[in-house]
Structures are given as C-alpha cells and as structure tokens.
C-alpha cells in the first residue's frame, strides 16, 4: 500500500451491465491502494453486472452514484473500463459524454482500456491523439480522427491540453493502473 495519491479523487464510469470484471475491479483496487478516493458511478446507479470475456456473467458490484449525479470538477482523473456492452452503452449515454468532455476541457487525465475508447469517439475528443485499445476498435478510432494507433500495453498521450492513457486488454492492467497513478500524482 502506498499513499502517494492521498487527497486525489478519481472517477470510474460504467453502464450497469456488460463491464469487463477486471477492468473495473483492478483499477478500483490499485488506485485505492495508492491512497486515492475512488468513486464508481454507473448510468443508473446501484448494482452493476460484470462479465469475464464479455460472455460469462460474474460479480455484481454496487456503484457509488449515478453518472448524472457527479461532476468532473470534483475529480482529478476519469477511468473508463471496457467490455463491449459497457463501452457501447456509455458512448450513447448523455451523462457519460458530458463527464468526458468536462474532464477534457479542464485538462485532466482520462484513461480508457480495451473497448473503453469507444466512449471517447462519441464524446468527440480523440482527434489528434495517439492511443491503443482492443484491436477491433482501431479502425473506429482512426476513422474518428485519432492521430495514430499503437499496439502497446499502455500509451500515454499528452496533446490538445489533456492527458489520455489507454491500454489494450485486461493483461495490460498493471501498466495501465501504474500509468494512471503516475499521471494523477503529477
């Protein structure tokens, strides 16, 4: 356990279903382990359903708030887990899109893993960014104006006034979590 993120607040956003289990639980655990206050907000609040490999139902997790009840101004960073259903739902969720844009406009860190960058496409914030994601999301990102896509466990891009951290899959979570902690610590 470390305390180098004591006093820092991180928001993790999800839908209420289709969330890749480890992409939600591992960042929550790692960032809290570094001393951050981490809030999990979901589309409807309450119970969220995680999955393993997008197909096997796993744990349910209680979220702390509804997306519409939180403000980007209250947090230092935003984390968007993957899961195809989760990411596809978030890209259509007005509250999620508003939150993403609040973080970007404030010049804060936004981190997305696996299919999570889909939500960034619909928020209109990836133009000019170089990032990574699950391989099937690459073409969508390029078509939406990303500056480039790289096949690496974690990619940090500081461009257009804000920091974007992305990773490909649950296998990349250790590097993803450490990159978030480092960026938030400053």
TrEMBL record:
Instruction: Please provide an example of a Pfam family that matches this protein in its UniProt record.
Output: DJ-1_PfpI
* Keywords recorded for this protein, A-Z: Glutamine amidotransferase
Please list the residue ranges annotated as the DJ-1/PfpI domain: 8-182
Q: Where is this region: Disordered?
A: 36-57
Q: Does the keyword rRNA-binding apply?
A: no
Presence of the UniProt keyword Transmembrane helix in the record: no
UniProt biased composition (Polar residues): 39-52
Protein origin, superkingdom: Bacteria
Task: List the Gene3D superfamilies.
Answer: 3.40.50.880
What family name appears in the similarity comment? Belongs to the peptidase C56 family.
Matching PANTHER family, A to Z?
A: DJ-1 PROTEIN (PTHR42733), PROTEINASE (PTHR42733:SF12)
According to UniProt, the name of this protein is: Type 1 glutamine amidotransferase
């Amino acid at each position: 356990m470390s305390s180098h993120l004591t006093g820092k607040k991180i928001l993790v956003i999800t839908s209420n279903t289709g969330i890749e289990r480890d992409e939600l639980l591992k960042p929550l655990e790692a960032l809290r382990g570094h001393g951050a206050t981490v809030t999990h907000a979901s589309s409807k609040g309450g119970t969220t359903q995680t999955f393993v490999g997008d197909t096997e139902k796993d744990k349910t997790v209680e979220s702390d708030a509804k997306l519409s009840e939180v403000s980007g101004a209250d947090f230092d960073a935003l984390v968007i887990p993957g899961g195809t259903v989760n990411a596809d739902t978030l890209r259509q969720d007005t509250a999620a899109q508003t939150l993403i844009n609040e973080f970007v406009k404030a010049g804060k860190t936004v981190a997305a893993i696996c299919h999570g960058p889909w939500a960034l496409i619909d928020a209109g914030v990836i133009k000019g960014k170089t990032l990574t994601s699950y391989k099937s999301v690459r073409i969508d990102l390029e078509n939406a104006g990303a500056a480039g896509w790289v096949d690496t466990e974690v990619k940090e891009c500081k461009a257009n006034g804000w920091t974007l951290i992305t990773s490909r899959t649950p296998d990349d979570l250790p590097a993803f979590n450490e990159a978030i902690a480092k960026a938030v610590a400053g």
